[in-house]
Structures are given as structure tokens and as C-alpha cells.
Write a structure and sequence with these properties.
Layout: E1 2-4, H1 8-11, E2 16-22, H2 29-43, E3 47-54, H3 60-70, E4 74-79, H4 84-94, E5 99-102, H5 110-121, E6 127-131, E7 138-139, H6 143-160, E8 171-174, H7 175-184, H8 192-202, E9 207-211, E10 213-214, H9 224-245
Parallel strand pairs: 2-3, 2-5, 3-4, 6-9, 7-10
Antiparallel strand pairs: 1-4, 5-8, 6-8
Helix pairs in contact: 6-9
């Protein structure tokens, strides 16, 4: 893994760390990061944006490097392989903020930030999960993507006794409380986020779900059908590490 960029605000610790894995996002990266930065500037909190680039074959890394040069709040981590889960984990481990927000480049949902952060700040939650599947959520993705979420969540309930409604996507948490959980996770790729949320619940972390609206800005960078074998392999590994290794 390589990294570039320094801590924002001349070396002071930011309050917020936004971690975003990116893979072949040359087309929307600059616009999305610029808009996100503008929104965060209006909130008044110190922040950093960590772009966890992983295995891109287009100009994503070059665009990200340019953003780092322009904006002191932007940091870049580069993982050599296309591996969403590893990129997200490395981004979390590198985060320096008191609160960490895990987002997607095609979402950048600052409305979720505004609703999640008060729950963390007042101590009512240590981890807030933005659920696409709970009552009140509005999932506008294609039907196949929505069905895949239901299938994965159903399988997680059966094989590891998952009690929530969603694991993948938007999350916010207190770094101090959840960093040990991230360090313990061993599953990468598509199901790192699932292991992270499941381990948190099993460890007694105060987890709160809130409904979110999901409307993607572009087609997924990785074809859903191509992900199926990897997801099944990761699910088998996740079942083993949760059920038998704890």
C-alpha cells in the first residue's frame, strides 16, 4: 500500500475522517470529491477525505493525485489490487478523525452524516449503519441490485445469526471504539463490511441503524455477476471465522 497527502489543518487532528474506496472512477471522481468538500466546508468541522484507490486501470489514481495537490484535506491510499474490502479496511486504519464515515463515491451522502453524527456525539451509538433495507429506506437501485442485497442479508442471518437489516454501504462510527474491530477483521473484498458490522454487534458495540436513500450516479464499476463467486467464497470464510474462531 502506498499513500500520499498529509493530515489536514497543518497537522492537527480532524474531527471527521471520510473513507471512500475508489476503483475505476475517473469519470466522476473530481466532481464527487469537490462537491463533498464543499458540503463539509459548510458544516464547520475539521475533516479529511481519504480516497482508498484499489487496482484502477483508468485514470483514477492520477485524478486522485491531482486532488491531493489541490486540497490539503484530501489524502490518497493506493492498494495494488482491485479489492474493495482491503481498501476500506486500510482507509479505516489510516483515518485520524474522532469520527469515521465510510461512504461510496457515487453517493457522498452528507445527509447521512448530519443524521448519524449527533447519535455518535451524544453517546447513544458507537456505530451507525445506513440501512437500505429497513422501514423508511428508499433504495432506488436496479431491481437486481436490490435483490442481491436481500439475498446476502438473508444468508448472513442464517450462517452467522446477523440481527440487523444491512451491512454494506454507509457507516459512521467512533474511531476509538471500532478501530480494534477493524483490526480483527480478516475477510476482504465484498464482505469486509459485513464482518465489520457483525463483529461489532457480537462485541457489544452500540449499533444503531437509520434508513437511507440510495440512488447511484453511475453503473457499478464491477459487474454483479462477476462478483458472485468471490462473494460466496468470502461468505464461507466469514462463516468459519465467526462461527469457529470468534
Amino acid at each position: 500500500m502506498t499513500s500520499s497527502g498529509t493530515s489536514p489543518r497543518q497537522g492537527t487532528w480532524p474531527e471527521l475522517s471520510v473513507v471512500i474506496p475508489v476503483f475505476n472512477e475517473e469519470g466522476i471522481l473530481r466532481e464527487a470529491v469537490t462537491a463533498l468538500r464543499d458540503d463539509l466546508e459548510g458544516e464547520g468541522s475539521s475533516y479529511e477525505i481519504i480516497l482508498a484507490e484499489n487496482g484502477s486501470t483508468d485514470g483514477t489514481a492520477a485524478v486522485a493525485e491531482a486532488l491531493v495537490g489541490e486540497f490539503p484535506e484530501v489524502r490518497l491510499l493506493s492498494v495494488a489490487e482491485a479489492n474493495y474490502g482491503r481498501a476500506l479496511r486500510e482507509g479505516i486504519l489510516a483515518a485520524e478523525g474522532r469520527y469515521v464515515l465510510c461512504d461510496e463515491i457515487d453517493l457522498c451522502d452528507t445527509d447521512f452524516y448530519r443524521r448519524a453524527l449527533p447519535l455518535l456525539r451524544d453517546g447513544g451509538a458507537e456505530l451507525v449503519v445506513g440501512s437500505k433495507a429497513m422501514p423508511g429506506a428508499n433504495d432506488e437501485r436496479p431491481a437486481l441490485r436490490r435483490a442481491a442485497t436481500r439475498v446476502i442479508n438473508g444468508m448472513l442471518r442464517v450462517v452467522v445469526d446477523f440481527r440487523g437489516t444491512d451491512t454494506h454501504g454507509l457507516k459512521a462510527f467512533r474511531r476509538e471504539a471500532l478501530l480494534p474491530i477493524a483490526q480483527r477483521c480478516v475477510v476482504e473484498r465484498d464482505l469486509f463490511a459485513s464482518e465489520f458490522v457483525i463483529r461489532a454487534g457480537r462485541a457489544g458495540v452500540r449499533v444503531v441503524e437509520i434508513p437511507v436513500r440510495v440512488a447511484e450516479k453511475r453503473r457499478p464499476a464491477v459487474n454483479l455477476a462477476r462478483r458472485v463467486p468471490g462473494v460466496l467464497g468470502s461468505l464461507a470464510k466469514l462463516t468459519y471465522v465467526i462461527r469457529f474462531k470468534g
